[in-house]
Amino acid sequence: MERRLFERLVRKALDTIPEDIAAHMDNVDVVVEDWPTQSQLAVNEIHDGEYLLGLYEGVPLTSRHEYGNVLPDKITIFQRSIEAVCQTNDEVVMEVRNTVVHEIAHHFGIDDDRLDELGV
């Protein structure tokens, strides 16, 4: 898929976030990269045959105390990783949305265990 189309999918996914939630996203940048770096894979304990689809890097809202003058948090959506786990364009669309929501949840301080409980 062309990068421009994939980035449009990410923007559409962001647009589906309810306004009352999106309004609380503070100091966060969302970017698209092809693949995660070796360092990102290692830190997140991603092994051969596994894919890292998205990554939140920053200080969750629930952990911000005396917070200021810092670089934005970063949500990275990995295009080639998502394409590797999807068979169709419709699956890519759904996975992009799921990944965006998952990483935004991390920005709000929701960990993977809780997301699993919620089915996200």
Helix content: 40-55%
What's the alpha carbon Rg, rounded to whole Å? 14 Å
How many structural domains in the coordinates? 1
Total E-strand runs: 3
Principal-axis shape: globular
- Give the neighbour order of strands across the main sheet: 1-3-2
What is the mean pLDDT?
90
Structural class: alpha+beta
Distance between the termini: 25 Å
Brief rundown of the structure:
This protein has helices at 3-15, 19-22, 38-43, 79-85, 89-107, 112-118; strands at residues 28-33, 54-57, 73-78. With 120 residues, it is of the alpha+beta class.
Structure write-up:
The chain is built from 6 helices and 3 strands. The chain is 47% helix and 13% strand. The chain has one domain: 2-Layer Sandwich (Zincin-like), CATH 3.30.2010.20. A 3-stranded mixed sheet has the order 1-3-2. The chain is of the alpha+beta class. It is globular, with a radius of gyration of 14 Å. It has helices at 3-15, 19-22, 38-43, 79-85, 89-107, 112-118, and strands spanning 28-33, 54-57, 73-78.
Question: Secondary structure elements and their pairing?
Answer:
Elements: H1 3-15, H2 19-22, E1 28-33, H3 38-43, E2 54-57, E3 73-78, H4 79-85, H5 89-107, H6 112-118
Parallel strand pairs: 1-3
Antiparallel strand pairs: 2-3
Supply database-style keywords.
single chain; 120 residues; alpha+beta; Zincin-like; 3-stranded mixed β-sheet; 6 helices; globular
